[in-house]
Every structure is written in C-alpha cells, then in structure tokens.
C-alpha cells in the first residue's frame, strides 16, 4: 500500500466519482485517497491529502477544473503532483488550457478501466497522456502567435536543444537516443538538464515551452 500511486478523484457527479474510485482501487498499485465534487474542494484536498495524481473533471459549477488545475500548480509542494484531465470532448479547448497550466494530458470519460489505470501510471512517471499530433493541435490553438524564447533557453547546449525539440515531437528516450546517436542514459541526463535550466516540471511542459516559443518550426 505504501508504494501505491495515490489518487484524488474530482468530478461533480457523485455516482461517476464513486464508480471511478471503485475501479481504481481494484487496480494493482493504485489507491484512491479522496474524492472531490468541486474545483475548490479539489484544491483544498490536494493540499490536505498530497495525492500524486489528481484525476480532474473540467466542467464543474463554480470553480471549474481548469482553474483548479491552475491553482494546484501555482502552489509549491514537497513532492510533484500530476493532473490528468477527464473530458467528454476530444481536443477540448479547456483541456488545452489545463495542459498549459500544468496538466499532463487528458482522457475521454468513455475510456476503459485498464487505459485509465495505465494513464495514471504514465503521468505519475512524468510522461504525457496525449498523442503528439493531438498535443500539437491543442497547443497550436493555444499559441497562435509565438513569443520569443526567454534568456534561459540560451543556456541550453546544442544537443539539449535537439533533445528539447524531440521531446516536444513526442519521441521516447529510446527514439531520441537513436536519433541523436547516444545512449538512453545520456538522453535522460539531457532531459534533466533541460527541465532544470528552464524550470519546467516534466516532458509535457517541455512540449508546451517548444510550441509557445515556436521552436519546432
């Protein structure tokens, strides 16, 4: 139990919320530590329970899931939290905004229990739950006009910039290693340096950074 991924389930529909909790608690290595029916409760319980993954509904009365995501990521905490969005609409513009605020991806609510559990494990590991083409489409809408890259980008080496663009294209460490003719451990080192130098949280934020500043063109 102590090694289980802890999850907070957020949805304004109690029956759906309870059903998801039952499903997740039946999955190996996952433990639901709480449920929230509003965005405000999601923010409060994230602080109180310190879950590792927040499964976030977007469309709720009052504070919606987008604002809750923004507030969750605006608060410094001792260990990282990953937000995984659940939505009924593919390529939802609200999902795009939530990703820009820090969410690690989204799933449709009609997903299977197995895919949901796999998605939680994926975001817990710091990866995105979103096809690269979908992520590109969402972020193109979010950033129709690119802004200049900050000075911190200039501190990246040439190899780190190549890795940044590869991560933003959705490549895995193994695929990047083959592309730049290096070992996977070297790629991991480059990714860590990129995150540190640019003050980013994970690979999803690297993709957001690349799109925001037009670094893929």
Task: Please tell me about this protein's structure.
It is a single chain. With 217 residues, the protein is α/β, with parallel strands linked by helices. The chain has two domains: 125 residues, Response regulator (Rossmann fold, 3-Layer(aba) Sandwich), CATH 3.40.50.2300; 70 residues, Orthogonal Bundle (Arc Repressor Mutant, subunit A), CATH 1.10.10.10. Helix content is 50%, strand content 12%. The protein has ten helices and five strands; from the N terminus they run βαβαβαβαβαααααα. A five-stranded parallel β-sheet has the order 2-1-3-4-5, with helices on both faces. Strand 3, helix 3 and strand 4 form a beta-alpha-beta unit. The chain starts with a strand and ends in a 5-residue tail after the last helix. The mean pLDDT is 89.
- Give the fraction of residues assigned to helices: 40-55%
- Report the CATH architecture of the largest domain: 3-Layer(aba) Sandwich
Termini separation (Å)? Answer: 46 Å
Strand order of the largest sheet: 2-1-3-4-5
Question: Which stretches of 5+ consecutive residues score pLDDT under 50?
Answer: none
Look up the CATH topology of the largest domain.
Rossmann fold
The count of DSSP E runs of length 2 or more, i.e. the number of strands, is 5
User: What is the CATH level 1 assignment of the largest domain?
Assistant: Alpha Beta
* Mean pLDDT metric: 89
- What number of domains? 2
Q: Please indicate the percent range of residues in DSSP E strands (runs of 2 or more).
A: 5-15%
Element order: H for helix, E for strand: EHEHEHEHEHHHHHH
Structural class: alpha/beta
The biggest sheet amounts to:
5 strands, parallel
Radius of gyration: 17 Å
> What is the CATH homologous superfamily assignment of the largest domain?
Response regulator
What is the number of helical segments per DSSP (H or I, 4+ residues)?
Answer: 10
Indicate the overall shape.
globular
């Amino acid at each position: 139990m102590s090694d289980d991924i802890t999850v907070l389930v957020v949805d304004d529909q109690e029956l759906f919320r309870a059903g998801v909790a039952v499903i997740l608690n039946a999955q190996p290595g996952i433990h639901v530590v709480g449920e929230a029916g509003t965005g405000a409760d999601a923010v409060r319980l994230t602080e109180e329970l310190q879950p590792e993954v927040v499964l976030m509904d977007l469309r709720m009365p009052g504070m919606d899931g987008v604002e809750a995501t923004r507030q969750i990521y605006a608060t410094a905490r001792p260990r990282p939290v990953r937000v995984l969005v659940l939505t009924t609409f593919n390529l939802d513009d609200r999902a795009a905004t939530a990703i820009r605020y820090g969410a690690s991806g989204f799933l449709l609510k009609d997903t299977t229990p197995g895919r949901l559990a796999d998605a939680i494990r994926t975001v817990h590991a710091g990866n995105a739950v979103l096809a690269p083409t979908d992520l590109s489409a969402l972020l193109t809408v979010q950033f129709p006009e690119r802004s200049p890259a900050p000075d911190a980008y200039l501190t990246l080496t040439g190899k780190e910039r190549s890795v940044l663009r590869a991560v933003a294209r959705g490549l895995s460490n193994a695929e990047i290693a083959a592309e730049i003719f290096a070992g996977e451990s070297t790629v991991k080192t480059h990714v860590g340096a990129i995150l540190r130098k640019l003050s980013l949280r994970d690979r999803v934020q690297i993709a957001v950074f690349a799109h925001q500043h037009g670094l893929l063109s």
